[in-house]
Amino acid sequence: MSRNANEGVPETEREENAPDRAPGSPKTPARRGTWRQARWVGFARPVAAVLAAVCVTVLATVGTLRNTVLDRGFYQQVLDDERAYDRLYDEVLVDPEARPVTSSLLARLPVPGAVVTANLKTVLPPATVRELTDEQIGAVTGYLRGDTDTLALSVDLTPVLANVDKLADVYLGGLVSEAQGREKVDLPAAQKRIEAAVDDVAAGRRPADLPTVELSDRAAENVSTFLLSRVPESERDALRPQVEGALRVGDVATALAAVGPHVVGGRAGAGAEEGEQELLRITEGGRWNVVEDLESAGMHTGALKSARSITHTLGWVYTLAVVVGVLSVAFLWVTGPRRRLRRLRAIGWSLAAGGGLTAALFGAVRWKADGMWGEAPGSWPPSLAALVEDLEKSALETLTTAGLVAALIPLAVGVLLAALSSVRRRPRAARSLTARGRTWLLAAMSAVTATAVVLGVTFVPATASGTQELHCNGSVHACELRYDQAAYLATHNSMSTTADRFISPLQDGDITAQLEGGARALLVDTHTWERPDQIAERMKLSEFAPEMRDRVTGLIDKAHPSRPGLWLCHAVCRGGAVPLVDTLRDIRSWLDEHPGEVVTLIVQDGISGEQTASAFRKAGLGRLLFTPDDDPQAQWPTLGEMVKDDKRLVVFAEHADGPADWYRNFYRYGMETPYAFSAPEDMNCVPNRGGRNKKLFLMNHFVTRAGGSRIDARKVNAKDFVLDRARHCEAARGNPVNFVAVDFANLGDAAGAVEALNAAREP
Predict the structure, then answer these.
(1) Helices marked H in 146-182
(2) 503: exposed, middle or buried (C-beta count within 10 Å: 0-12, 13-18, 19+)?
(3) CB atoms within 10 A of CB 177
(4) d(CA 144, CA 163)
(5) Which of 76, 112, 168, 354 would bridge with 53, disulfide CB 3.0–4.6 Å?
(6) Is 550 exposed, middle or buried (0-12, 13-18, 19+ CB in 10 A)?
(7) Mapping DSSP to helix (H, G, I), strand (E, B) and coil, where does residue 740 land?
(8) Integer-rounded Cα radius of gyration of the chain
(9) What per-residue confidence (pLDDT) applies to 346?
(10) Which residues, other chains included, contact 396 with Cβ-Cβ below 8 Å and sequence gap of 6+?
(11) DSSP class of residue 395?
């Protein structure tokens, strides 16, 4: 005899296991829950499912927008990914087609435009550009979020004007030093003399110290006519004999004094004050109102205002979507089939549909991306148009990627719940629970699912957009490389620069400029100021050609007495020197402004280890110094670990080994190639100091031909030339090249070669 299938099964479980009544079957006696069969419920359930799907789409979309378009970190990430700051200096500001704009901007500055454009990173340092840009990004995102009612973009130009003023002092200082015949300029004294001379002219007195100038009769007549043209016509005849007579004998001072009260008409200081006031007027007190200039140039901000009308409502839209979505899911649960596990089916497909809608939305945006941006104005330089286009594409790609990742959360959860609802047989653990226990278990699962969806679509886009991604030496990939796996552009004799007026310099820009240009290793020489009797001995060890040695030695009798302190010099300090501690402070400031950079110093030490340690303490570098393991074969940390620990300055010595634990002898840890190459074709990779099989590898890559060879530097610093030699040396020595040491690092593209080496290396 067959047994009843439900025999021995509790009544409540029998009810849950009973199949739903088929349409047209006899009605069962009325009992609790029959309201689920009401007609209005049948109409309301599809509506609730659609509402749930729409709410999921809204949550995912709003969460993506809040973590990308409305987050200032998103924009800085895009700028970093596209190397916007480097491209601004290397492509846009030096574009010949941008010259009309830069010429207009520089027209009223007290420095020739060519001087400013050649010193762009001094006038407008990358750190300043980043700070100014971040300020404007914050203003725009705040406006879009509704934090402010007006779009106020106002740039503080005070740091830029201060840098221009410093550059003007340096430029004028060079001119004055030549006029004064002094090695060191006394700019304040020169300014006082100029003011006194102009004051004398304004008062009709003959200024002192003006030279006599030989003029032909015709030239004297022309100059007289020019000077007298500024004098009232009624007084010209009376002054003409005095002016012409003075000029015929070359007495410019007397001629100027005669017309001075009419030409100058005031003190010299008044002109400086008027110039300062004019500069402040042009910049509106040191601030630049960007919005006014954009609108006057035809670039209206109406699009931002329209966007704000939408974006500042996202907060309450998000809240509304959460409330409606939760209510819709709750309704689907309560009105679902008697078997509670099957109630998850409608909920799961609603979530999956919401995720699918979100993916379709962001997929369509990416597909139609090409038609979303207008053409750049024809007046823009091509380099600027290309930069803006790349930024737009990168921003859109990051945005849509974040949206697609956010869509995966509800899609995956929904499919999982739908699959779970199809399970026919309840797991043994679930069968052991009471009906009430199973109800609470399913309710808890639904609550966890809803929370996961809401939080997922809110926070996952922030992860996908990569706003917190760590950059090391300008690259995310480099963070994964160990210190001994990465390559670094190194500048040979970094302190010997044209900027600091060294005799026979080996670099152009100063050390800060070299760091800005991509150098991440500095090869420097430390010394104390030599006595005359030490010159000859030092010159024997120098790289100067014999005629250069004779020239420097000939300056000994004219040189100033020895100067106290510690210096960075190339062979002899009288041939050029910069203070050691001050230079270290500059390096510290640069590292503070660039928290993702790791820098190495390799010191040809002409001072003791104790003196070196003292200089680093005075410069405030102790907190940044990395201490290598005492075992040269120990594993180095990754650049990412060094950046996170803020131990980003590695210091080696050519001779010393301590006493500070961070100050190690380079040749215990590293090896090198030869460095005395007289022609590019002479370069080879044979072992030199340090022998073989060391973890660090220094490739000396410069030509010394009667000193540093600028002409050869342009050739050997070419990207392909550097890459070919580096790969040859790596194959010959069995180690990756770490330090590529070059002269005149601003010539060629050695930095590009180093970047290519790092990109090809695997952690």
Answers:
(1) 158-180
(2) middle
(3) 17
(4) 33
(5) 354
(6) exposed
(7) strand
(8) 38
(9) 84
(10) 365, 366, 369, 372
(11) H
Assign 708 a pLDDT band (cuts: 50, 70, 90): confident
Residue that the structure tokens 């009325």 belong to:
30
Instruction: Inform me whether the pLDDT recorded for 179 exceeds 60.
Output: no
Are 471 and 520 in contact, with CB atoms under 8 Å apart? no
One-letter identity of residue 627: T
Distance (Å, rounded) from C-alpha 21 to C-alpha 104? 84
Distance CA 359, CA 23 (A): 37
Relative orientation angle of helices 217-228 and 252-263, to the nearest 10 degrees: 20
**Contacts by 390-397 with C-beta closer than 8 Å and gap 24+?**
390/82, 391/78, 391/79, 391/82, 391/84, 393/369, 394/78, 394/81, 394/82, 395/74, 395/75, 395/78, 396/365, 396/366, 396/369, 396/372, 397/366
Choose among 81, 89, 258, 106: nearest CA to 171: 106
pLDDT of residue 705: 77
pLDDT digits (tens, 9 = 90+) for 561-596: 567 889 998 877 877 889 999 999 999 999 998 889
Residue 41 has pLDDT above 70, yes or no: yes
Give the whole-angstrom CA distance, residue 532 versus residue 555.
10
Which residue from 519, 502, 562 is spatially nearest to 740, judged by alpha carbons? 519
Contact 481, 732 (CB under 8 A): no
Task: Answer positive or negative: Cα dihedral of 684, 687, 688, 693.
Answer: positive
Let me know: does 206 contact 243? Beta carbons within 8 Å.
no
| pLDDT surpassing 70 at residue 229 | yes
Closest CA relative to residue 130, chosen from 82, 79, 60, 55: 79
Beta strands in 354-494 (DSSP E): 488-491
Locate the DSSP E strands across 8-153: none
State the DSSP H helix or E strand holding residue 435, giving kind and residue range, or none if neither.
helix 435-465
Note whether 343 and 333 are within 8 A (CB).
Answer: yes
CA proximity to 615, closest of 569, 566, 653: 566
Q: How far is CA 587 from the centre of its chain?
A: 17
**Backbone dihedral region for residue 663 (phi beyond 0: left; psi -120 to 50: alpha; all else: beta):** beta
Indicate the angle between helix axes 252-263 and 187-202, nearest 10 degrees: 70
Domains and CATH numbers, the chain: 39-157+287-469 (no CATH), 168-281 (no CATH), 477-495+509-523+580-759 (3.20.20.190)
Over residues 473-477, mean pLDDT: 87
| Mean pLDDT on 625-649 | 95
pLDDT band of residue 213 (cuts 50, 70, 90) is low
DSSP class of residue 516? H
Mean pLDDT of the chain: 75
Q: Are 236 and 228 in contact (CB under 8 A)?
A: yes
